[in-house]
Design goal:
Number of domains of chain A: 1
CATH architecture of the domain at 6-83 and 174-255 in chain B: 3-Layer(aba) Sandwich
Distance between the termini of chain B: 34 Å
Oligomer: heterotrimer
CATH superfamily of the domain at 6-83 and 174-255 in chain B: P-loop containing nucleotide triphosphate hydrolases
Strand order of the largest sheet of chain B: 6-7-8-3-9-10
Number of strands of chain B: 10
Structural class of chain A: mainly alpha
Shape of chain B: globular
Largest interface: A-C, 44 and 42 residues
Helix content of chain A: over 70%
CATH architecture of chain A: Orthogonal Bundle
Number of helices of chain B: 10
CATH topology of the domain at 6-83 and 174-255 in chain B: Rossmann fold
Distance between the termini of chain A: 32 Å
Number of strands of chain A: 2
Number of helices of chain A: 11
Radius of gyration of chain A: 18 Å
Shape of chain A: globular
Strand content of chain B: 15-25%
Largest sheet of chain B: 6 strands, mixed
Order of helices and strands of chain A: HHHHEEHHHHHHH
CATH class of chain A: Mainly Alpha
Helix content of chain B: 25-40%
Radius of gyration of chain B: 19 Å
Structural class of chain B: alpha/beta
Order of helices and strands of chain B: EEEHEEHEHHHHEHEHEEHH
CATH class of the domain at 6-83 and 174-255 in chain B: Alpha Beta
């Protein structure tokens, strides 16, 4: 039970990052390797705003999501757009996003330095003791904000014009073009929304771990794994995948071996890919973003 | 000329996709050295039938006999060795390779792959490469594409790409060739050329099964025609018979094909 | 028309002479060290080009086979005093077995799923090496990996290693070239272009895919053996995800649908990443920028620019001097 609870906050973060991968993959077909570094950027901006400029948590969260969302748009305009215009093979797109990851990481290194920064929790990390189990306020905050962000995304996709366009492109890119959807714009929206999601995950995860320039690689990869385990391209799948991975890690780390924790995760991943490539939690009709 | 030997027997094949009965207990027999047309309105199950024959789809029921021997399902790569080659409705070529390389892949199963000799630049490797090259050039010559052998496929016209696919299937040295809408997208000149090629192949002893929408073409080249509608075999016979068959007429008129 | 073929043997002889005499002109051992390292990485990229460029199976886990090669050969040499020349085949074999192992689930996968499976395999391998301390010494890594000998000459200096590595790279390039320009390479390309059509033409696609994984793994395993004796030490830090990414970048930047591209890409990126050290903090920023620029503006990699380069050089007045006669167009 305790392991399950411990897994929830990190699971929520994985779920948000998984969503950002799914969103960008289904709506633009891009496997974006810089997603993890958007998480890192979000964490650093949140850190700077709250610790250096003494903003409070909520405005810092929103501001960071906006700034990182803009970075997403810049990446789409400067890199994805020319690649698409030249019909570059998918592997080139992968390398380009890896290039973005390398650049982002090293600019962060130049600005904030190599030392890990402590991002104190906005609600304190005093544990809350409930008979047998204990949770921190931070954990509760992470889960709540995580769910809130996911709900906002769902609303955005269902009820706004941009969100609807995104879903149309995800369904059938060519048909959407024929219907007059501007795919450059929808790509930009997808990149912005994914980056902003990443940023929110960054601020949420920051008090749990330290903020470092290379934190993005690990968390990005885990988010991607969660998305694929749950079902890449599906919103409920990604969320389920995130929470599943969080709890699994907590269990594997606590019950089996902390050193082999990630190895177990990846072994499971390969097993899932092999036996059920559409994802664990997607049964038949895949709900696309 | 007319041989009675049966090259392909399709026996009681059924296939459901969800609520749709794509093929409903279909049986048909293709005779050796004939051109056999399969026609029918859209959604009649023609391509599904092709996919079952070529091992892309597992049917729910039924079996296939090729030269009196049962064909395995779901193992497309065993078709060419058995003696069946196909083309695709929406042309599937190796787009960024040359015409010659495309046709050479058709040769794949007919030449060995002597790894050691390849690594040592041995005589065996160059001998078989030569054999494959000659065969491929023959196929290209047959469809009239010899001058294009060095071109990259994606730079060719639509009709030419259909012919490359044809040559690739020929290079596989099949007994039976399955053509999925070979004339789709071709202009009248190209169609006439195609007609000539198919007739020549028949003269050479090949058996050809084709799905086609162009009724004029079908009536001209087929000895036998099978009409499918809603997954059922509604008529089978010579062109004149099919032309006058009441069910066929109503199937087409009803669907406005 | 390819002027290099026209220039024929002459060009090859000049190239060979440069390659053989190079150590005499490089007095700075550090430069030679970088060149040696690039030579080792070239082996990995050669295998990766056959796998990703020809067969179209993108792998972001090549560091795993590299690690397996290093650890298998180094452990055999350390614990059983086996000679380098016997450890190498063992390492290649071990890497090949793991190549088949990942090839089996991979044959069903494509796109991001395949990429992730290979990343997962790379991470599992690294974590096992990190945690299986009894055998691998964990994070501390292996030290004092014995030096190889060749006909009773102990290979110790950078120059010695240069000739050892160049000889192996030469053989590796030759094999890769033969494979790529044979029926096997043609079949690999067909699988990349259209798996289903290849299957319908009788190609046993799954077998070829696994073969491509095994070949690329064997190349990386060979590179691993060399790396172990060359560096003398090896730890999990030498075989990270970032290394796998770097190998893939070398392959794509050089041009992954050619054999020459592997060599060009590897040397360029290895040398570049060292040369950029003068920019200190911004080194990797520039590196990333160059990656992005290349994949956008040279979609087939640097070697993909060869036809354009050939046309340009044919028009130059010195082409005549270089190749004795002005190359004529056919």
């Amino acid at each position: 039970m305790q392991y399950f609870l411990n897994g929830l906050p990190i699971g929520a973060i994985y779920a948000v990052v998984a969503l950002s991968y799914s969103l960008i993959y289904t709506s633009s077909g891009v496997l974006n390797w810089s997603q993890g570094d958007m998480v890192m950027l979000g964490a650093y901006i949140g850190f700077t705003l709250t610790q250096v400029f003494h903003w409070s948590f909520t405005p810092a969260l929103l501001a960071s999501m906006v700034v990182v969302g803009l970075v997403g748009v810049i990446v789409q305009r400067l890199i994805l757009k020319p690649l698409r215009e030249r019909k570059a093979p998918p592997i080139n797109v992968v390398i380009a996003t890896l290039g973005v990851a390398i650049i982002t990481r090293n600019i962060a290194l130049a600005i904030w330095g190599p030392d890990a920064q402590v991002f104190p929790s906005p609600v304190g990390d005093k544990p809350l003791q409930l008979s047998m189990i204990s949770v921190t306020h931070q954990d509760i905050l992470v889960v709540c904000v995580g769910i809130l962000v996911m709900a906002i995304l769902q609303y955005f996709l269902k009820y706004t014009k941009e969100g609807k366009a995104l879903r149309a492109v995800a369904q059938d890119r060519r048909a959407a073009v024929l219907m007059g959807v501007d795919t450059q714009k929808s790509d930009a929206v997808a990149f912005a929304a994914s980056a902003a999601l990443g940023a929110s995950a960054g601020i949420l995860v920051a008090p749990i771990f330290f903020v470092t320039f290379n934190m993005g690689a690990g968390i990005g990869l885990k988010g991607f794994v969660a998305a694929v385990i749950g079902g890449l391209g599906s919103i409920p799948g990604s969320i389920a995948g995130g929470f599943f991975l969080g709890t699994l890690e907590s269990l594997a780390g606590g019950q089996i071996s902390s050193g082999y924790r990630d190895a177990i995760t990846f072994a499971l991943l390969i097993l899932v890919l092999w036996l059920k490539p559409s994802g664990l939690f997607i049964t038949k009709s895949r709900q696309k973003v | 000329m007319e041989s009675t030997e049966e090259i392909l027997q399709i026996k009681h094949i059924s296939k459901r996709f969800g609520g749709l009965q794509a093929l409903d207990n279909i049986s048909l027999t293709v005779k050796t050295n004939t051109v056999h047309g399969i026609i029918g309105p859209n959604g009649a199950g023609k391509t599904t039938l092709f996919n079952v024959i070529t091992g892309m789809i597992q049917p729910d029921d039924g079996k296939l006999l090729f030269l009196q021997r049962e064909l395995p399902f779901l193992q497309p790569h065993k078709l060419v060795p058995a003696g069946i080659a196909r083309t695709f409705q929406n042309i599937r070529l190796f787009e960024s390779m040359t015409v010659l390389d495309n046709v050479l892949i058709g040769q794949h199963v007919h030449t060995p792959t002597p790894v050691i000799s390849i690594l040592l630049q041995g005589k065996k490797a160059s001998h078989w490469e030569r054999v494959a090259y000659d065969e491929a050039m023959q196929s290209l010559e047959f469809v009239g594409l010899t001058p294009k052998s060095g071109e990259i496929v994606k730079n060719l016209s639509y009709g030419q790409r259909r012919l490359v696919e044809f040559a690739r299937a020929l290079a596989a040295k099949p007994r039976l060739i399955l053509l999925d809408e070979p004339a789709a997208g071709m202009n009248p000149t190209e169609k006439a050329h195609l007609l000539k090629i198919v007739l020549q192949l028949r003269e050479k002893g090949y058996t050809i099964v084709l799905i086609e929408h162009d009724m004029k073409l079908v009536m001209q080249i087929c000895q036998t025609i099978t009409v499918l509608d809603h997954g059922n075999n509604i008529a089978e016979g010579q062109p004149e018979y099919i032309r006058k068959h009441p069910e066929v007429i109503s199937a087409y008129l009803g669907k406005g094909e | 028309m390819d002027i290099y073929r026209l220039a024929g043997r002459k060009f090859n002889i000049i190239l060979l002479a440069i390659v053989l005499l190079l150590p005499l002109f490089i007095s700075n051992l550090y430069y030679l060290h970088i060149i040696n390292l690039a030579g080792i990485y070239t082996l990995i990229t050669l295998g990766l080009n056959l796998l990703s460029g020809y067969t179209g199976q993108v792998s972001m886990g090549q560091a795993a086979y590299f690690a397996i090669g290093t650890y298998v050969s180094a452990l055999l040499m350390i614990h059983f005093q086996i000679s380098f020349w016997l450890a190498v085949p063992a390492a290649i074999l071990a890497a090949g077995v793991f190549g088949a192992l990942i090839g089996i689930p991979a044959m069903k996968l494509s796109g991001p799923y395949l990429v992730l499976a290979t990343v997962g395999f790379g991470e599992i391998t690294r974590l096992v090496i990190l945690n299986w301390t009894a055998v691998t010494k964990g994070a501390a890594g292996l030290t004092a990996i014995p030096l190889p000998t060749f006909l009773s000459i102990k290979i110790t200096s950078e120059q010695d290693f240069y000739y050892l590595i160049i000889a192996i790279v030469f053989v590796g390039t030759y094999i890769a070239y033969r494979l790529a320009h044979s029926k096997i390479g043609r079949t690999f390309s067909a699988i990349r272009e259209d798996e289903l059509a290849a299957e319908a033409m009788g190609v046993p696609v799954n077998m070829y895919k696994i073969a491509a994984f095994v070949i690329s793994a064997m190349y990386a395993g060979m590179a691993g053996s060399l790396f172990g004796v060359f560096a003398g030490v090896a730890s999990p830090d030498n075989f990270t995800f970032d290394d796998s990414v770097a190998f893939l970048c070398m392959s794509v930047v050089g041009g992954n649908r050619s054999i020459a591209g592997a060599i060009i890409g590897t040397f360029l990126l290895t040398v570049l990443s060292e040369a950029l050290r003068t920019f200190q903090a911004y080194r990797l920023v520039i590196y990333g920028g160059i990656l992005i620029f290349t994949v956008i503006y040279m979609p087939q990699g640097i070697y993909g620019m060869a036809p354009i380069f050939n046309k340009w050089i044919e028009r130059q007045p010195f082409a005549k001097l270089l190749f004795w006669q002005k190359p004529s167009r056919e």
